[in-house]
Amino acid sequence: MSAHISFRSRATMYLRVLQDDRKGISAIEFALILPLVLVLLAGTVDIGQALMVDRRMDQIVATVSDLTAQQSSWTASKLDAILAGSAAISEPFGKSNLTIIVAAVSMDALNKQTVDWSRAFQTTPWIAGNISPVAISSTVLQSGGQMIVARATYSVQTPFASFLRPLTGIQAYNFTRTTMSSPRNANSITLTTP
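User: That's the sequence. What structure does it adopt?
Assistant: Structure tokens below.
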């Protein structure tokens, strides 16, 4: 019977030691918090990349419209070079999902806005003579005037987009940016094609 008591007293002693031992609590807390921290980290990386792409889209359309508005006439090959060069702004995200359009839009006496000419990068240009797909306020574009319109679209799939899809419902971030510039050296800008 004394062996039974000594086993019991030893077990009680070990339980008291374990009850007072706090060494494993940090490991358990770490194991519980780690998934949340990893999801927050992945979300931060995703949003950071989306914000970088957003900024680059603004730079692309601003560059295209500003450069185009600086001359009174362009050749198709020079505008194509500007579009291709502006597409390099999207690096390191790649150009495969990037489209850029630059167009001259004019308004007639009846406030009808039509495309005078258009060039495009990795998409179909707007058709000359058609109504402009971009509505320009009559306070900005007046009758007989012309505006240079640049539009870019981009779709980027970030590294964690598919991982976070069950939480966000987003598989890729889609961006569309449009900007306008007035011709600087003439009332209108012409395009010549070889």
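The CA atoms of residues 101 and 124 lie 8 Å apart.
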